[in-house]
Design brief:
single chain; Beta-galactosidase, Chain A, domain 5; nine-stranded antiparallel sheet; six-stranded antiparallel sheet; elongated
């Protein structure tokens, strides 16, 4: 590893640090976020207190109504629920729909989804003995969750909350309809239909006769969806980073609430919304409409580390209502894994839910890395071998850049004896040596940055793969060698303490092997390099991989495995290219022939030479001033 490689790696490391620095809020921002969060918490406590009071009052009214004669009871319920008074009394019951992939449990209290069991996927639990165990994976199962409509019943200031109504359930094959009667053939109904071998449920609202029940100025029906995301994955750090609330306006690209901020809010009021998705790292619960929702307000709040839940996601969605006597509104639920192809085939940019990154990173992941991986997975069952083959393909694609880098290194090596003679001739005059070295580079046609640029050109792929492995559900709980989950870190050795700065309380063997192989290769290259002018570079090339160890130790083991395979293949490519494809004698002969050709100075070269000459002239003048005897007073 020569100086240019070190510069390239240093630049990459600096970019990583800068990326993390700018993503990390400052102390002032943290304090401001905390103040905002405290204010929000106070408002929410007040809101919850008011909600509790209202529920207690409603409960008291219902209990009081149960103890009075039927005529008075009807009057009390009518004042609270209007024409839906009959639906305010009942008992909670459940209904189940299931297919090959999911089992959906509904409650007639509110007519909502109460629980969804993933049959093909499992939750990873890290026990007190620090061993991983798989247990059944449920979505939307938290008792704190809410999915309720505020029906704008005329004469009632706050409307009717469907969470307080007991719907009548009617099953028909793999479909169930929950109906809340309002009398005289009028009703509000919700119908769920689960098709075979699918995570998608067709969902429709039926407002039969509601034009006579709802307020005359009602243009929308408010849907309040509160979802507490469970901690599903082994690495909560990764899961928190990739879990958030996503949404898609009808006419623009998909957006999301910030997953890193303590509290993030998006207001799409007035803008039609295609879908809203509550997204974990590898799963999501989304509601969508072909016609589009009228508008939506969304917020995401990170919950404390000690909380049993990961985040609280809140969506307030406005359902359009045209005021018709027999009106319906069709929607769909998707409750399942973030499988790119499955989501992409659903349309409406649903595949944007998969957090592959934005701009060039997302493009590389979606349309280059992912298709390659899918093709290799079709051929090979082991995800670890697929990573190895993916690494090999990437290295083959980038081989022209690698060859150019090695060729440039070989030219620098061939020129090293000439540079050594320059140093002997000019001694400690570093500026003279630098100027003559630049002149020599130009004479022999050597670009000192030729080995650095190819490495920088690989940066987009590095960043893309950094997002690809922890975002691809195909790696989730996929085993390879000692790694039990390629989407999370491999815990080869457990530490009795935790190291800060993201290192963790474990040692990742893939990351450690990458560091060791890098150090070994660095030692091999350093034997033929001269660090007398910049001795700090000798130590820097060993320090950099060790610093990266802290970064990769808690990263996805699939990424660490890729880095190790890439490093080993890079070593093999370098040795094979140097010993079999590159003839140093021919390189030297070509450089000598280039030296004899007439050359036209580039503008940049002339400016560099002029600058070095001026610096040398100033240095010589300073030296002369120092050697002049001091004037006597």
């Amino acid at each position: 590893m020569d100086r240019n490689n070190i510069i390239g790696i240093a630049l990459i490391f600096i970019l990583f640090l800068a990326w993390q620095y700018f993503l990390t809020p400052s102390k002032a921002q943290i304090a401001a976020q905390q103040r905002t969060q405290d204010s929000i918490a106070r408002v929410e406590r007040l809101r919850d207190s008011l909600t509790i009071v209202k529920k207690q009052e409603a409960k008291k009214k219902l209990e009081a109504a149960a103890e009075v004669p039927d005529s008075q009871r009807a009057q009390i319920l009518g004042g609270q629920f209007g024409t839906f008074a009959a639906a305010a009394v009942g008992s909670a019951e459940t209904t189940v729909l299931e297919n090959e992939l999911i089992k959906v449990t509904f409650s007639n209290k509110g007519g909502r989804i109460k629980d969804v069991l993933m049959k093909k996927h499992f939750k990873m639990v890290h026990g007190k003995d620090r061993k991983d165990r798989k247990i059944p994976l449920h979505l939307l199962e938290d008792n704190k969750n809410r999915f309720e409509y505020i029906l704008p019943v005329q004469g009632l200031r706050n409307g009717v909350n469907t969470a307080d109504l007991y719907f009548t359930a009617e099953e028909n094959g793999n479909s169930v309809t929950f109906r809340a009667d309002a009398g005289n053939g009028q009703y509000f109904a919700q119908t769920y239909t689960l098709t075979a071998n699918s995570y998608k449920l067709d969902y429709a609202l039926d407002f039969t006769g509601m034009d006579k029940v709802f307020a005359s100025n009602a243009k929308t029906i408010e849907l309040k969806w509160v979802n507490y995301l469970d901690k599903i994955e082994k690495s909560t750090q990764y899961e928190r980073q990739y879990s958030t609330l996503n949404f898609k306006p009808v006419d623009t690209r998909a957006g999301r609430c910030s997953p890193t901020k303590q509290y993030s809010e998006k207001d799409a009021e007035g803008a039609p919304i295609q879908w809203v998705a509550n997204t974990n790292q590898f799963f999501n619960s989304a509601i969508m409409s072909e016609k589009g929702f009228a508008s939506a307000k969304m917020s995401s709040k990170n919950l404390p580390e000690e909380s049993e839940d990961l985040k609280e996601l809140v969506s307030t969605i406005q359902i359009p209502f045209g005021g018709g006597s027999n009106e319906q509104f069709a929607m769909h639920f998707y409750i399942g894994p973030n499988e790119f192809d499955r989501l992409h085939n659903m349309g409406y940019s649903m595949s944007d839910i998969v957090p592959f990154g934005q701009n060039i990173m997302g493009t590389i992941n979606r349309w280059i890395i992912r298709p390659l991986f899918s093709f290799l997975t079709w051929l090979i069952s082991s995800k670890g071998i697929v990573i190895l083959m993916l690494t090999l393909l990437v290295k083959l694609i980038l081989f022209p850049l690698t060859y150019r880098m090695i060729y440039s290194q070989s030219k620098m090596t061939a020129l090293k004896p000439e540079i050594d003679r320059l140093k002997e001739r000019h001694g400690d005059d570093q500026q003279k040596v630098q100027m003559e070295t630049m002149k020599m580079y130009r004479e022999f046609g050597v670009n000192p940055l030729g080995a650095c640029f190819p490495m920088l050109l690989q940066l987009p792929i590095w960043f893309a793969l950094y997002r690809f492995f922890p975002a691809s559900i195909e790696f989730r709980q996929a085993k390879f060698l000692w790694a039990g989950d390629l989407s999370s870190y491999d815990e080869f050795f457990q530490l009795p303490f935790s190291i800060p700065f993201g290192f963790g309380d474990h040692i990742s063997l893939f990351a450690l092997l990458w560091v060791l192989s890098t150090l070994l290769y660095t030692w091999y290259n350093s034997k033929n390099m001269d660090f007398s002018a910049q001795p700090a570079m000798l130590y820097m090339q060993y320090i950099m991989p060790v610093m990266f160890m802290g970064f990769f130790n808690s990263s996805a083991s699939g990424l660490s495995a890729y880095m190790l395979f890439s490093n080993l293949l890079n070593i093999g490519q370098t040795l094979a290219t140097k010993y079999f494809l590159i003839d140093e004698k021919k390189i030297k002969a070509g450089m000598d022939a280039y030296r004899k050709k007439p050359k036209k100075k580039s503008g940049f070269g002339e400016r560099m030479e002029t600058m070095l000459k001026e610096q040398q002239k100033l240095a010589e003048e300073k030296n002369k001033d120092k050697t002049k005897p001091a004037k006597r007073k």
